[in-house]
Amino acid sequence: MTTPRFIAVIDIGKTNAKVVLIDRDDARQIGARSTPNTVKRDGLYPHADVERLWAFILQSLGELHAEHGIEGISITTHGATAALIGDDGLALPVLDYEHGAPGDVAGYAEARPDFSETLSPRLPNGLNLGAQIFWQSRAFPEQFAQVRQILTYPQYYAWRLTGLAASEVTSLGCHTDLWAPDKADFSSLVSNEGWRALFPAVKPAASVLGTLLPELAEATGLPATTPVTCGIHDSNASLVPHLGTRQAPFTILSTGTGPLP
User: Which pLDDT band, with edges at 50, 70 and 90, does 260 fall under?
Assistant: First the structure.
């Protein structure tokens, strides 16, 4: 497979979502689409409007391909977010991490691993992804019993594009309580709660997870052979271009809408 030159980057930020087309040869942006990333307030709890985002992604891919041509797809999203997948799609809505309930859920302080294991500080609301999943499992036990896979947010969109599921370290490791960096493995919280089997195998962020599903190729006009990478957490993505290219010491300031720990 030849290295794609024109790469569509799906970038789901907490405030805005974008699809931008990058010329890999000179790192130039040659096309873009953007939409607000709104939160739905109906249903069980505040949640991401994933179907509106999905429609935006497909429309943007189709338009950018018609205008310039797309040879590959990459994905980056904000952290502290996961999709709980059942037999027929989402078993529960994709929870908005600003919702306060996971931050106050009874029993989580005792269940979460020590900082020395995960390097995750205790954060408010749902900013610890482990707290979200813990709360969802207690607050909605019937729906949670239908969960077959837990996908961190970039990998959710990769799954929708390819039909293939994966876990990925940068999303698992961003203050989630779910990952033990020193062991390069899931944390004791995942094991103790019986969630390990729900997480797919870990794959590298830049690896090609698969190619576009045939029905999506038809809907967007992209070739069905278009490769889709596994995906990466956005703050980690901002670091990648500087790795190995700068002499120490240097500083990178990543400014998003989330609070600093």
Answer: very low
